Automatic annotation (TrEMBL):
It is an enzyme of class 3 (hydrolase). Signal peptide: none annotated. Residues 1-159 form the Obg domain. Residues 160-332 form the OBG-type G domain. InterPro entries: G_OBG (IPR031167), GTP-bd (IPR006073), GTP-bd_Obg/CgtA (IPR014100), GTP1-OBG_CS (IPR006074), GTP1_OBG_dom (IPR006169), GTP1_OBG_dom_sf (IPR036726), OBG_GTPase (IPR045086), P-loop_NTPase (IPR027417). Coiled coil: none annotated. Its cofactor is Mg(2+). Monomer. GTP binds at residues 166-173, 191-195, 212-215, 282-285, 313-315. Gene3D superfamilies: GTP1/OBG domain (2.70.210.12), P-loop containing nucleotide triphosphate hydrolases (3.40.50.300). It comes from Buchnera aphidicola. It is found in: Cytoplasm. This is GTPase Obg. Its main location: cytoplasm.
């Protein structure tokens, strides 16, 4: 099933019911007076978080939502029934946007979070409301007001503490699996990961969520490849892991490989570019000890001293425990 992370929907709350004009007519009570009841309020439309959802696929086809109108008032001071509310369920991380001015209406990031997105119309008043000492037989009532109608955009931005970056086949999915419980399709061809995947890492009583997005290639920010459309899913991350396949270093300078990703990040969004990044050199199981020592010397000469980096093998789970431990310490460090 196609992963859907952005939809535009039309929501219309219910209209308020009209008030009623009625007079009490009973035997032996010739002047019973006004007894027209109020209408019912229109139904509201709410957006509510749902932990069991992970995409906006449900709204790929169904895009229009109407809440029920309030019923009109009745005689004998009986009020009309309130219209039923509509609840639109969305996954955690959904951002609700105003399509007119692109402003953010709300971010759905909490369990059981509920926001009123379109308010139902107010009920009309029956003629019994207008009775007074000077007007014993009022023939006045009010109609219910219209419910709110809006066109909104739902945009899913996954909630993850750590995100992975890298060229296709750098080992991002293998690393995500090695660190967490995520299950992703892995093979030796470009764009094995077609959708962002979330995994949970737990060490003792501390946890973090890691996101695996499709690989990014040169020109991604201008629409080449798949990764750029999913980069927004890294915007909530507090740490990024830039995965580099060490077997490609033989052919290219480390900084050239890094800059392919960094340039696309910067072109996409400055705030994502500024998220702290650690370098993770993967597939060291393909090298002998002497070459690993030479690689470390090579890396130290070409990156900044304060740049944090790791040598790992996601496939053989070499260096994974150290990486996991350091991520936990970083995320749980006070004031981070």
């Amino acid at each position: 099933m196609k992963f859907v992370d952005s939809v535009i929907i039309h929501v219309s709350a219910g209209n308020g019911g009209n008030g009623c004009i009625s007079f009490r007519r009973e035997k032996f009570i010739p002047k019973g007076g006004p007894d027209g009841g109020d209408g019912g309020d229109g139904g509201n439309i709410w957006i509510i978080s749902d932990l069991n959802m992970n995409s906006l696929t449900d709204y790929r086809i169904k895009k229009i939502f109407y809440a029920e109108n309030g019923k009109n008032g009745f005689s004998s001071n009986r009020s009309g029934k309130k219209g039923k509310d509509i609840f639109i369920r969305v996954p955690l991380g959904t951002r609700v946007l105003n399509t007119e001015n692109k402003s953010i209406i709300s971010d759905i990031i909490y369990k059981n979070q509920k926001i009123l997105i379109a308010k139902g119309g107010w009920h009309g008043l029956g003629n019994s409301r207008f009775k007074s000492s000077t007007n014993r037989t009022p023939r006045k009532k009010t109609n219910g007001t219209l419910g709110e109608s809006k066109i909104i955009k739902l945009e899913l931005i996954l909630i993850a503490d750590v995100g992975t970056l890298g060229l296709p086949n750098s080992g991002k999915s293998t690393l995500t699996q090695a660190l967490s419980n995520a299950k992703t399709k892995i093979n030796n061809y470009p764009f094995t990961t077609l959708n962002p995947i979330l995994g949970t890492v737990k060490i003792k009583k501390k946890t973090f969520i890691i996101a695996d997005i499709p690989g990014i290639i040169k020109g991604a920010s201008s629409g080449v490849g798949l990764g750029i459309q999913f980069l927004k899913h890294l915007s909530r991350c507090r740490l990024l892991l830039h995965i580099i396949d060490i077997t490609t270093i033989k052919k290219k300078n480390i900084n050239k490989i890094r800059l392919i990703i960094l340039k696309e990040l910067k072109n996409f969004n400055e705030s994502v570019f500024n998220i702290p990044r650690w370098l993770v050199f993967n597939k060291i199981d393909s090298l002998k000890k002497k070459k690993i020592i030479k690689l470390i010397i090579y890396i130290n000469k070409r990156i900044k001293k304060n740049q944090k980096y790791y040598l790992i093998s996601a496939k053989k789970k070499i260096g994974i425990k150290k990486l996991s431990k350091d991520i936990i310490e970083y995320l749980y460090k006070p004031n981070i």
